[in-house]
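Researcher: We're reviewing a set of sequences before deciding which ones to prioritize for further study. For each one, I'd like a predicted 3D structure that I can look through quickly. This is histidine kinase. If possible, include the structure in token form so it fits the rest of the review sheet.
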Amino acid sequence: MSLFLSKVRDIAIQLNIRNIFKSLRVRFFIVVSITGLLSCLVMHALILQSYEDRAVNVKSTEVQTQLRILANHLITYNYLQDTSSEVINAELDMIANLYDGRVMVINDDLKVVKDTYNISQGKTIISEEVVNCLKTGSRGTLSKYDSSNGYIEMITPIVTTELIEEGDIAVAGNSNEVVRGVLLTSVSTETIANTLEILSRRATTLETLIVTIILVFSALVSYALLKPFDRITAAINDVKAGYTDKPVVGPNYLETEQIINAFNALLRRMKVLDDSRQEFVSNVSHELKTPITSIKVLADSLLAQEDVPNEVYREFMTDIGEEIDREDKIINDLLALVKMDKKASGLSITSVDVVNLTEVVLKRMRPIARKHNIDLTLESNRAITAEIDEVKISLVIMNLVENAIKYNKENGTVKVELDADHQYFSIKVIDTGIGIPKDSLDHIYERFYRVDKSRSREIGGTGLGLSIARNAVLMHRGSIDVKSTLGEGTTFVVRIPLICVGSK
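Model: Here's the predicted structure for histidine kinase, in token form for your review sheet.
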């Protein structure tokens, strides 16, 4: 049991850590802190490296100046042949002691004529740098810094100038520089290392202080900058809990404004949907209740009468049957809308001859057109084959044509035009009917909306046909537009992609 509890605790700790690192505030804090820490470390390394390079250069230049002066004195006192000069020996010891180093005087036979350490004196030295200096005759001082062992090694040529003679006569202005020896000098950099250590300790102390300030600053800034998000979250939670339905307001940050605007747009959309749902429920209740009320009244009237004649009985039953048919049509239309609202239902895509499909639908609608003395015609500019849901597109055509017939004038016309381009095909339904008022054009696709409620009920409309048509068009990623002039007629234009990607 204890092992199980321990595992549960470990899992809880891991989940808690994961949640902590998901926090934008924590991530902001970590990013700022790491940025500050890395900046301090880089500055630390750059400053120390810069100081070390500068100190080594300054010391090398200073020692090189002394060595060049000493090299001239060695030639003046002929020290390479006679090392007894107290002045030169004093200078050599002074340089060695001053710079805590070692000086060796080497002649052109690679023999050490003087060593301030008295270790290699009289010996022959084999060094590539020394040999190259003697061969090339360079007057420049070669310098090499060994940071790991803490010294600077310098090779300074001992150069003399000789006149060039022609026969037994020295020609003025003609001279030649000859390397007579080399000064091999090692200078300690302990003072530089000590200074670097002191600077490093001070820099570390300063960095610790700076990093602490950065940590505190990043914590405060992350809290201050992200606090508006907490207020937005709280406001959204209030809306979610139902305490308020007012739009969310917040600080004028660009990011928070985008979030607030998106949420407020969603809130408005949800409010519209909620109002639409309430209105829809109210309309459904009313529409379904009306036929039932009529049936109830007719049935009660029959029951209240005695010895009802067959003619009256048949008349009442005919009325009841019409009300039942009306109820059935409303229910069927509602079921069609519900099926289209379900995204899982998808589309059954097949290759369809749109012209032939339209002709079949119009053939079914012509009896209704003849009944209303309406001339129904089809005009197609070309053959059209599209990847669509045949059933749903037939519903679109049927509902638009049925409305065009029912809301037309006596001896009016309904013309259906088909056309296509390389991407879309279009269905245009043109009637010479009563038209739609301009203020109703934005509402005609709403469920149960009727422009003329009395006429709609008289001709048996449910107010769901255009909603069904629009949903079917949108499922095909198409568009439906309407233009209407009151008293003159209405034109619906439907555009559907020739190739519709849907579920089969």
